[in-house]
Amino acid sequence: MKKIFFFSLIPVVFFYNHNSYLAPQKAITSYTNTVAKDVVSFARTVPPYRVNLNNYSLVLMEDFQGNSLNSKRWNYLEENTVRGFGKMLRSNVVVSNGTLKLYAKRETGAAGHESFSGAMISTEHSLNQRYGYFETKAKLNKQIGPNIAFWLLQHSVGMAKNPPNPAIYGTEIDAFEYHRAAGADSLYYNLHWNGYNFSNGTHRTTGISAYVPSVSDGFHIFGLEWTPKDYIFFVDGVETGRMNIAISHVPEFIIFSTEINGYGGDRFKMSSTTPDVLEVDYLKVYARKPSVTLYGSCDYQGWVLPDLKPGNYNLAMLTKLGMLNDDAASIEIPKGWTVTAYEHDNFAGESITVTSDSRCAGNFDNKLSSLKITNP
Q: What pLDDT does residue 328 have?
């Protein structure tokens, strides 16, 4: 039995198990309350935060023209397998009239036999990206039954580790999930990490919900900004949620899905004559412009100092920008860039040169006081 976990806050914070790509395929049959271990509260920024696209470069624009899915960009996931109560079918993916349709169907066969199906596609073989802004314009389904989602994943998310380490192995990032049975104008933003074994306690999950008036009507723009510090969620350009836990530091691919797994409500309330559908007008993906990021602890933990450009930084400059206690421990470096870290201020003392991400800055853990960044 899958479980939904929830804990009352203001706003409400939901904890539950999304039937993820790598998750065991056992459908939800009932809901169980429990005390949540990981609690994340969301406070809206004032004024509302909006994405600054000057910090990003457009790397993918998919507007679903033509009459078939672009096979160089998209692949079918879990094809012909049963997820929950529904089989994932390629035939449920349709491109026509400038939009992508992912259908969810209930069909009655011989002797009244009921069958259910959905669909799932991804950029697994064409685009895997760390950080960025991910935006889609979509129309949500109308019936109780389907669970639809726009999300990011990397296969290593399915690896359970002790201790859990989403920074290194990734996090399932649900840019939005929609369960019409839980409220026509409610969205869910969820994170999952450390494997998908729900029975032995290794799996970790947390999430928040957002009430967005009229989101169930017509097309809306759904966005996720993933930075070294936060996951920030948007509807029609306005922030609707934010979390700063389980930040993934590995590239991930994009998924659109319609599933019949119980989270969308009673599947037998679906029409057997009119399929339900997630309709997508476009997908835009923006990459974060290259920069160096410093972290206060190993494995990209602790305080975060992002967006360092080429140049020389002494201790006073780094401290002014946000470095604490001259104790940077890990570094993220764009491809082709070089960082030389110095033990003392003003580029003195022992030094180390790194040209790729360093989980503990070599033997410079907690020794970095100044650095030089070059981009040949």
A: 86
Q: Which residues lie below 8 Å from residue 274, measured CB to CB, with a gap of 6+?
A: none
Contact 65, 98 (CB under 8 A): yes
Identify the helix (H) or strand (E) that includes residue 302.
strand 301-308
**Lowest mean pLDDT across 15-19, 166-170, 200-204, 330-334:** 15-19
d(CA 245, CA 18): 17
* Amino acid identity, position 282: Y
> Does residue 104 contact residue 260 with C-beta atoms inside 8 Å?
yes
Q: How confident is the model at residue 13 (pLDDT cuts 50, 70, 90)?
A: very low
- For residues 201-231, one letter each, b for 16 or more C-beta atoms within 10 angstroms of the residue's C-beta and e for the rest, the string is ebbbbbbbbbebeebbeebbbbbbbbbbeeb
CA distance 117 to 106: 7
CA separation for the pair 348, 31 (Å, rounded) = 60
Number of residues in the chain: 376
- Residue 358 DSSP class: B
Q: Which region, left, alpha or beta, applies to residue 194 given φ > 0 means left and ψ of -120 to 50 means alpha?
A: left
Residue range 327-364, pLDDT digits in tens: 788 999 999 999 999 999 999 999 999 999 998 876 67
Token pair in block for residue 117? 């199906």
Pairing of strands 86-88, 114-122: parallel
- Rounded to 5 degrees, φ, ψ at 298 are -65, 160
Strands 93-96 and 86-88: unpaired
pTM value is 0.89
Burial class (CB in 10 A: 0-12, 13-18, 19+), 150: buried
Cβ-in-10-Å burial (0-12, 13-18, 19+) of 3 comes to middle
pLDDT at 9 exceeding the cut of 90? no
Contacts of 261 (CB under 8 A, 6+ apart): 19, 27, 28, 83, 84, 85, 86, 147
The 3 state secondary structure assigned to 308-350 is: ECCEEECHHHHHHHCCCCCCECEEECCCCCEEEEEEEHHHEEE
Q: Which alpha helices (H) appear in 151-310, and where do they start and end?
A: 166-169
Structure tokens at 368: 């970095």
- Other CB atoms within a 10 A radius of the CB of residue 100 amount to 25
